[in-house]
Design goal:
Elements lengths: L1 E5 L7 H4 L2 H8 L4 E5 L13 E2 L9 E2 L1 H22 L5 E12 L2 H8 L4 E5 L8 H7 L2 E4 L9 H12 L8 H8 L31 H19 L1 H9 L5 H11 L4
Parallel strand pairs: 1-2, 1-6, 5-6, 5-7
Antiparallel strand pairs: 3-4
The chain binds ligand 9WO.
Length: about 260
């Protein structure tokens, strides 16, 4: 997968390109990531990318021309992979804003195996000129109902969520868990050494060595936590014709290769 980013703060993306699972995937060229700075596509002495809003009011708006030129740079770069690899790859242009459709794991899963490349647009100031959105953006996405000071952190959230699902990026163990039955449930609690921490023990079943029992306990904990903390997730599951709990437990155990 190849990912282009349009942002006036390219250095921020070291947070994903230098660290952790995404950093490793990028270093190994399992994903190619490159930033395109609208300032590099300006002609004036001050490299202006923003202007005062028509209609007045506070703040500044990102002008469409530098964004369009940076996007053209991004799509040219992505097309160079298409030519090298001798296949036609689709490109999705995604703008991160609080006005977008709320991002859910299902969309992340689809994007991770849709075979497309991506351009993520990170806005700054009060936003970007709406005509740029209308003309060039395929998809306007929100990561949650809050306002940031720019789109960069939201872009990194989305890239991290996608990259960890790409084949070979996380171990098989993890990806198996992701696409099996745990989907749509909150995770169960986790414990590690020591067995006694500040007078608090570890649930006995986890020390029993009985893997079928442990799987059942984890499943029950996941369902119970979801019911208490995010009942909305369980409602959605049954609305979409999810299997019964017994069948989902059986599937989970099969996924873990437990009879
Ligand atoms: C600024 C602002 C000021 C007063 C009242 C409303 C306001 N909205 C914004 C605003 O949306 N600024 C954005 C900053 C412009 C586009 C980039 N920025 C951004 C993206 N902030 N938050 C996001 C974002 C993206 C995805 N999911 C959640 C938040």
């Amino acid at each position: 997968m190849n990912i282009a980013i349009v942002s006036i703060f390219p250095e921020m993306f070291e947070a994903i390109s230098r660290y952790g699972v995404s950093g490793r995937a990028i270093s190994r060229n399992e994903v190619n990531v490159r930033c395109f700075n609208p300032r590099d596509y300006t002609e004036d002495r001050h490299r202006t990318v923003d202007e005062r809003p028509y209609g007045g009011g506070p703040g500044m708006v990102m002008m469409p021309e530098p964004l369009e030129k940076a996007l053209a740079g991004a799509t040219d770069w992505l097309d160079s992979f298409t030519q090298r690899q001798g296949e036609r790859r689709a490109i999705k242009v995604v703008y991160l804003s609080p006005q977008g459709e709320k991002l859910k794991q299902q969309k992340v899963n689809e994007w991770a195996d849709c075979g497309s490349d991506f351009v993520f647009i990170a806005g700054r100031y009060e936003g970007i000129d709406e005509r740029f959105v209308e003309l060039f953006v395929d998809c306007e996405i929100s990561i949650g109902d809050y306002v940031l000071s720019g789109g960069e952190l939201a872009v990194m959230v989305v890239i991290d969520a996608i990259v960890r699902l790409l084949p070979g990026v996380l171990g098989d163990e993890n990806s198996a868990r992701e696409d099996s039955f745990m989907q749509g449930l909150l995770d169960c609690p986790h414990y590690t050494r020591p067995t006694d921490y500040r007078g608090r023990g570890v649930p006995k079943v986890l020390l029993s060595g009985d893997h079928a029992k442990i799987a059942q306990w984890r499943f029950e904990q996941a369902v119970e936590r979801t019911r208490r903390r995010r009942p909305d997730l369980l409602v959605k599951k049954s609305e979409t014709g999810g299997e019964g709990w017994d069948e989902r437990l059986a599937q989970y155990m099969r996924g873990l290769k437990i009879k």
